[in-house]
Inverse folding.
């Protein structure tokens, strides 16, 4: 076995394409759902094409946990990692550690969504190249809504009422584990997304405006958080205060929730062969608040090449490969990951096999970004102050009005004269 | 008595018995002193490198404007990370810095609360377990080994395991309590602000009671059996024997065990980071420091927090040693 591997390796080196020298590179990536398995499959393909060898360094699902580790590695100028999978909100905070991709990607950059490219450009430097984008959906159980003669909700009020009615009726009928609605309520970056959607869809702004003004303390935002607080313990389980994406999907996919707020990846998994809710659910854009319109938090992951990599050329080659239309399409079909190439939303195969992805083109186009550009290097602290205020409101520690008042003064202290 | 003479180095005894002159004695002791320093030197150098240098550097960085990306070029800014008044120029102003951050004082309170309750519980339970394991019964060796299991599991693993056991939907704890009829609906132990800290304390007690048991058991085994025989002959009640004989004799062991545990508990990080991440109810000093150092762009303030963490722990330890010694003196 070993000898065969050796011979194969020797063969590869001897018969490698002239000019291309095989390099060993590593990519670090967080993992939600089947991310890593899918990445490995694409890397195998890449290895075959390029003769390079790629290892995956796997990280936990929480973007907050990943960021702390990456910042440490990058500040220590760690040369072990060549390619980082980066969250859409990190560009401003980590810009100085990544290679400028403007030049190497100039022939393909025009194929991608301008808003996504703009989010990864810091002072004219293209910090990271998009792998996939993300905009959440409201998942609902078609069988249950049909049973009780309901339509998918268009507003949060409708959602609250429908969830309560179905949950109570199901529980009365002996289905005691049923919950109305699950979302991400744990104190982490995901809650910033969820809460931003409640606030923005009610006309309460984006926490910090693109000009850098602190706008979060307003009546619409207070009302939105009070509404969400009313869900905990009624239509949402009390434990939602500790749920991240995978915990909420756990409740949903075991058939114990009427509604779920989650990213599109849950669509493909929910229709997996072993899923109890296979074929029993659909997804629609998130509801709107009173006097507002539906707002989806812009997510997504990108690929950045470390400034300290010894194999920059091979690393850029890998980024180019993983961001290419073929790979984006494969991710859309396999894992419902949203492409950053607009043309793919018109692709016949995607339209047929991944209708959610095809339908999400306009949701992505209208998605609300988190204030990472306006708050620059202080975004993480802003976000942490925000999610703490929201989590405490949901947990019943202080009401929304006083918590947002305190948040405003915290943010003002952070900002002082200007974000930096 | 055999114990006592074993504790004295034989050379010293030899010096006394051989009745050597004062000159020769001092040369010898000088030689011994030199040898002692020689043997200690490698350890001092290593300690200075791995403990002293990072500590001094952290203290230095807390007086600079360092961020994680500019550690090499950080400049001295005085006490700004601890205490600073910013004048907004319009007659108003605000205090900033670690000592003005309510989140810091919240985490100090959380740490002290967590450390005192968990260490007290672990000491009492550890003492009980040690007394049981010290008694002769069938299968004692097996039980002694079994008790150690929680201590042998890495904290991150046991924290994750407990996180699932305490989960509100799939957790076995809620399932058991509901089957027994103690609670009517599932409790979100780690998410509920009223129970989050107690969940952390409970997991810590579960994990580190074996450590206390082990140290106290070692102390118990040093107590000579003839003391108990004498008490038995005199007809003293077992309760009185425990408080008048056992407890004073194992007191040094307990005091050492408590200081070990307290130092660990005051620095707690991994358990909280995994079991209740980012929860402001359970945020300890170490978690606060880690956040500022690596999550936020506040390396200098994180260093200030680390410096204070060190000072607070040093102060508590010195205070404890002083109090414990005083009691020792009074007891004798």
């Amino acid at each position: 076995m070993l000898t065969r591997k050796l011979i194969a390796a020797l063969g590869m080196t001897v018969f490698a394409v002239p000019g291309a020298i095989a390099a060993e590179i590593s990519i670090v990536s967080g993992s939600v759902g089947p991310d890593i398995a899918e990445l490995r499959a694409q890397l195998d393909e890449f290895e075959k094409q390029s003769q390079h060898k790629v290892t995956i360094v796997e990280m936990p699902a929480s973007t907050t946990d990943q960021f702390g580790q990456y910042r440490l590695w990058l500040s220590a100028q760690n040369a072990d990692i060549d390619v980082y999978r980066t969250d859409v909100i990190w560009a401003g905070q980590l810009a100085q550690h990544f290679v400028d991709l403007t030049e190497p990607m100039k022939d393909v950059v025009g194929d991608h969504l301008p808003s996504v490219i703009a989010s990864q450009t810091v002072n004219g430097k293209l910090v990271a190249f998009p792998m996939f984008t993300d905009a959440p959906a409201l998942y609902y159980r078609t069988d249950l809504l049909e049973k009780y003669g309901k339509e998918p909700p268009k507003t949060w009020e409708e959602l609250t009422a429908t969830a309560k009615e179905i949950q109570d009726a199901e529980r009365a009928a002996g289905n005691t584990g049923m919950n109305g609605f699950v979302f991400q309520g744990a104190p982490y970056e995901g809650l910033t997304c969820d809460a931003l959607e409640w606030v923005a869809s009610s006309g309460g702004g984006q926490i910090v405006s693109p000009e850098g003004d602190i706008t979060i303390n307003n009546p619409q935002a207070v009302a939105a958080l009070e509404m969400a607080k009313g869900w905990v313990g009624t239509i949402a389980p009390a434990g939602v205060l500790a749920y991240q994406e995978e915990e909420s999907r756990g409740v949903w996919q075991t058939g114990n929730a009427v509604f779920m707020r989650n990213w599109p990846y849950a669509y493909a998994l929910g229709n997996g062969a072993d899923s109890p809710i296979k074929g029993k659910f659909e997804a629609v854009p998130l509801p709107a608040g009173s006097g507002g319109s539906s707002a989806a938090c812009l997510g997504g992951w990108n690929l950045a090449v470390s400034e300290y990599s010894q194999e920059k050329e091979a690393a850029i080659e890998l980024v180019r490969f993983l961001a290419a239309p073929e790979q984006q399409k494969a991710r859309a079909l396999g894992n419902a990951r949203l492409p950053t190439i607009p043309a793919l939303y018109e692709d016949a195969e995607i339209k047929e096999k991944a209708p959610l992805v095809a339908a999400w083109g306009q949701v992505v186009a209208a998605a609300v970004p988190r204030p990472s550009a306006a708050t620059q290097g202080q975004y993480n602290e802003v976000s942490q102050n925000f999610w703490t205020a929201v989590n405490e409101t949901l947990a019943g520690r202080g009401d929304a009005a006083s918590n947002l008042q305190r948040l405003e003064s915290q943010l003002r202290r952070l900002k002082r004269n200007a974000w930096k | 008595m055999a114990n006592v003479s074993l504790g004295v180095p034989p050379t010293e005894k030899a010096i006394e018995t051989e009745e050597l002159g004062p000159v020769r004695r001092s040369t010898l002791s000088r030689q011994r002193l030199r040898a002692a320093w020689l043997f200690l030197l490698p350890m001092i150098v290593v300690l200075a490198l791995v403990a002293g240098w990072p500590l001094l550097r952290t203290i230095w960085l807390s007086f600079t404007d360092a961020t994680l990306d500019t550690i090499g070029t950080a400049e001295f800014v005085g006490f700004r990370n601890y205490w600073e008044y910013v004048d907004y120029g319009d007659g108003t102003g605000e205090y900033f810095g670690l000592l003005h951050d309510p989140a810091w004082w919240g985490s100090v309170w959380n740490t002290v609360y967590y450390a005192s309750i968990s260490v007290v519980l672990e000491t009492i339970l550890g003492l009980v377990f040690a007394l049981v394991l010290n008694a002769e019964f069938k299968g004692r060796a097996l039980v002694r080994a079994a008790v150690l299991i929680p201590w042998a599991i890495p904290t991150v693993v046991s924290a994750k395991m407990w996180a699932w056991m305490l989960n509100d939907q799939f957790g076995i704890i809620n399932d058991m309590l509901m089957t027994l009829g103690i609670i009517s609906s599932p409790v979100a132990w780690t998410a509920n602000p009223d129970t989050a800290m107690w969940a952390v304390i409970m997991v810590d007690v579960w994990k580190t009671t074996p450590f206390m048991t082990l140290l106290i058991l070692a102390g118990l085994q040093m107590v000579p059996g003839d003391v108990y025989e004498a008490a038995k002959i005199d007809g003293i009640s077992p309760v009185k024997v425990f408080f008048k004989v056992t407890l004073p004799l194992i007191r040094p062991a307990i005091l050492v065990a408590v200081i070990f545990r307290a130092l660990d508990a005051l620095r707690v990080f991994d358990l909280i980071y995994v079991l209740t991440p980012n929860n402001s109810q359970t945020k300890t000093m170490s978690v606060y420091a880690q956040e500022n150092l690596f999550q936020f762009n506040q390396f200098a303030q994180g260093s200030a927090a680390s410096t204070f963490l060190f000072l607070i722990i040093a102060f508590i330890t010195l205070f404890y040693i002083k109090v414990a010694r005083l009691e020792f003196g009074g007891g004798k």
Summary: The interface with chain B takes residues 62, 64-65, 67-69, 71-72, 75, 93, 96-97, 177, 185-188, 237-242, 247, 250-251, 256, 377-378, 380-381, 384, 387-388, 391-392, 395-397, 413, 416 of chain A (CB under 8 Å). The first strand of chain A starts at residue 24 and ends at 30. Chain A has two domains: 10-133+299-365, 137-297+369-415. The radius of gyration of chain A is 22 Å.
